[in-house]
Structure formats: structure tokens, C-alpha cells
Design goal:
The protein has 356 residues and is α/β, with parallel strands linked by helices. Helices cover 32% and strands 20% of the residues. The protein folds into two domains: 59 residues, DNA polymerase, domain 1 (Orthogonal Bundle); 284 residues, Alpha-Beta Barrel (TIM Barrel). The strands form three sheets. The chain has a ten-stranded mixed sheet with strand order 3-4-5-6-9-10-11-12-13-14, sandwiched between helices. The radius of gyration is 21 Å and the shape is elongated. Bound molecules: S-adenosyl-L-homocysteine. The site of S-adenosyl-L-homocysteine (SAH) has 16 residues, from strand 10 and strand 12.
């Protein structure tokens, strides 16, 4: 019999599990409290649970946390965690301090199948989906390394993989992250970033989770977007923006559009004007991400004046636009730079990976 990984279950499902074992449902809440509030993963230490319940947990379940294989620290204070999963594969999570925030960037897949031309993770292809417990487990593993008094305040689903392509596990993880019996995060502190899966956006809208949505746009015409993002050949900009307009945004909240700036590709003032026109009438903010380079990508980051000029056009058109200077560039932890060493080693000698 294979063991149930309790991290794959929401706190509400743990209550159902207790009931199914002829225990009162509050035993499930107590169990969730040990795991998520107290960070205790040893059943023997869960002292307020009756012996027979603990024995059955030991026999039939496990709390399989990803193991920290490596931590790289950036000069800017961010940290990249390389996490080993049960089958030996690895994913990365990045912890980024910023004034009074501590944001953790989570992965949802090993690799990614969407092959955006500028993204290093995309060169891995999709290796596999993560389970809900492997998504939540990244937070539990990173949290366990923090000094006492320090707390992860914000979560972004912007690591390796496409969250809406691993839909069920992502939604289960979001429920555990936001449940008052789980990790108790306000949905406003969580952002899910998508390559632009129209059906996934519509489905997420119906879950009532109220998390923030970020959409990777990266171009204002189908011609340019289609060249950069193969997904655009199936769902064009009109379809995507229509789904964004349908998405039920909580009051006073705006949808984020990510826009990676690539020198000479999508960074002209004319492209900025087209982008502003496209976003008219949407409660939107644009997050400009100057391209984070990787060897062999074939793309360059635009010069600073061009980045600022692009932002200026948007601001003058009344579109809120910020520039995201990615953290952790020196440790290969910035947006689009994540790719696991284990995969790299298998395909190419280290340093020659981009040629693959
Ligand atoms: N699959 C999700 C999460 C991806 S990573 C999505 O597509 O949104 C988060 C952001 O980093 C995305 O907007 C992605 O397009 C962007 N990105 C990818 N490679 C990048 C790079 N080399 N430099 C800057 N941003 C990049």
C-alpha cells in the first residue's frame, strides 16, 4: 500500500480523513495545526493526538517534505533553494527580501513545456508536474531555515513551470496556503502568474480563491507574441485579453501584466503605445521585466534609457507601469533563469547548457 502524503491534502481534507477513520473531525484540524502552524513533521511529537490515531498516521501516511540540496545566497539578500523531491528530481524556490516584505517564489512543475523563447526554464521541456504537497512543501522547507521572528509575507507562483497547466495541484496548494486551518495567507498576498492559458484563467475565476493574477503578455501584437511565445499560436491576444476582462477582480485590485523587455524585439515606443491601447479599460498594471540574460539565449536587455522610455510612454498614456529589477541575478535566480543543475548535468556539461 502506498503511503498518503498528508501535504497533498488541504486542512479540510485532513478533517475528512479523520472522520473516515472514525475520529472526530477536529483531530484533522489538530493535525493541520501541527504541520502548518507549528511546522512539526514528526507524528510522535504531536502530543495532543490520541495514540491510536498517531499509530495509524505512522502506518498509512507520510509527511514528505522536499529536502534542501543547496542554498545559494545573492549579494542582494535573496536566496535560491534547490529542493530535492522524492524521486530525486529537483526544483528551485527563491526567497526575496524587500523592505518589509519577504516573498517566496514557488515552482509548480519540474521544467516547463511552453518553450517561451527568452526563458531558460523553457529549454528543459516539461519533466513532470509537482504534486500539491511538493508545492506547499517548498514553503515549509524554506520557512524552516528562517531565524525566529522572520516570516514569509508574500507568495508568487513565478518559479519553474506553468501553474495553470498543473491546475488541480495548484488549486489544492492555494487552498492549503489560504485556509485558516492551513497556512492562513490572505489571498491578496498570493500571485499566480500564467503564460496566458485562457481556459485556465476562466476556471480559476470560478474557484473563488481571490488570489492575484499576473499574465505574461510580453508583446502587443500577435505577430511578435507568436514569435516569442508558442502558446500565442493557439490563443491570440484578443482571446487572452477577453478572458482577462471576464476575470472577477476584487475591489481596488488590479491585474498585473508582465512584459519582459528584449532589446530590439518588443521595446520600441511604438510597441508601448500599442500596449497602452490594448489595455485600455482594463484595471491593469504593467510590470516591466528587463530581460535577465542566460548564455546562448540570443536576446539582450535593452539599454536603461530605452527601458525608461518604454515606461514613460505607458505612464503618459495613463497606464500604471513599474520596472521589476529581478533579484538574485548573480546566482541565476532571477525571473526566467531557473533551471535545475541535475537536468543540466544530464544533457550537457555544466556551462554548455544553453547550446542544447
Ligand atoms: N509560467 C508562468 C511563470 C513563469 S516565470 C508565466 O509564464 O507567467 C515568471 C515571469 O518571468 C514570466 O512573466 C516569464 O515570462 C518571465 N521570464 C521568463 N524568462 C525571463 C527572462 N529571461 N528574463 C526576464 N523575465 C523572464
Amino acid at each position: 500500500m502506498s503511503l498518503i502524503n498528508l501535504l497533498d491534502r488541504t486542512p479540510e481534507e485532513l478533517q475528512a480523513l479523520a472522520l473516515g477513520w472514525d475520529e472526530p473531525s477536529y483531530r484533522g484540524r489538530q493535525l493541520a495545526g501541527w504541520i502548518y502552524r507549528k511546522g512539526v513533521f514528526d507524528f510522535g511529537a504531536m502530543t495532543d493526538l490520541p495514540g491510536r490515531f498517531r499509530e495509524r498516521l505512522v502506518r498509512e501516511t507520510t509527511l514528505a517534505l522536499p529536502a534542501i540540496a543547496r542554498v545559494a545566497a545573492s549579494a542582494d539578500g535573496s536566496q535560491k533553494f534547490e529542493l530535492r523531491l522524492g524521486d530525486g528530481r529537483t526544483v528551485q524556490a527563491v526567497l526575496m527580501p524587500d523592505e518589509d516584505r519577504l516573498t517566496l517564489c514557488l515552482s509548480t512543475q519540474v521544467g516547463c513545456g511552453f518553450a517561451c523563447a527568452f526563458c531558460y526554464t523553457g529549454t528543459m521541456g516539461l519533466v513532470r508536474h509537482l504534486g500539491a504537497g511538493e508545492i506547499v512543501g517548498q514553503l515549509l522547507a524554506a520557512r524552516a531555515t528562517l531565524p525566529s521572528g522572520s516570516r514569509i509575507t508574500h507568495l508568487v507562483f513565478m518559479g519553474m513551470g506553468e501553474p495553470l497547466a498543473n491546475y488541480a495541484a495548484t488549486v489544492t496548494a492555494l487552498r492549503t496556503l489560504t485556509s485558516p486551518h492551513g497556512l492562513g495567507y490572505s489571498p491578496r498576498r498570493i500571485t499566480v502568474s500564467t503564460v496566458g492559458l485562457v481556459q485556465g484563467i476562466d476556471r480559476l475565476a470560478r474557484e473563488g480563491l481571490k488570489v492575484n493574477l499576473a499574465v505574461s503578455l510580453h508583446a502587443a501584437t500577435d505577430e511578435v507574441r507568436g514569435r516569442l511565445m508558442p502558446i500565442n499560436r493557439g490563443w491570440g491576444l484578443d482571446d487572452l485579453l477577453a478572458a482577462c476582462r471576464r476575470f472577477p477582480l476584487p475591489v481596488r485590485q488590479r491585474m498585473t501584466f508582465e512584459y519582459v523587455l528584449l532589446d530590439g524585439v518588443n521595446d520600441s515606443p511604438e510597441e508601448a503605445r500599442r500596449l497602452a491601447r490594448r489595455l485600455a479599460g482594463l484595471r491593469a498594471k504593467v510590470n516591466l521585466i528587463p530581460f535577465n540574460p542566460w548564455t546562448g539565449s540570443g536576446f539582450r536587455r535593452p539599454p536603461l534609457e530605452r527601458i525608461l522610455a518604454f515606461q514613460r510612454v505607458l505612464l503618459d498614456a495613463g497606464v500604471t507601469a513599474t520596472i521589476r529589477w529581478s533579484k538574485g541575478e548573480d546566482i541565476g535566480a532571477a525571473c526566467g533563469q531557473l533551471r535545475t543543475a541535475e537536468q543540466r548535468a544530464r544533457r550537457q556539461p555544466v556551462g554548455a547548457a544553453a547550446a542544447s
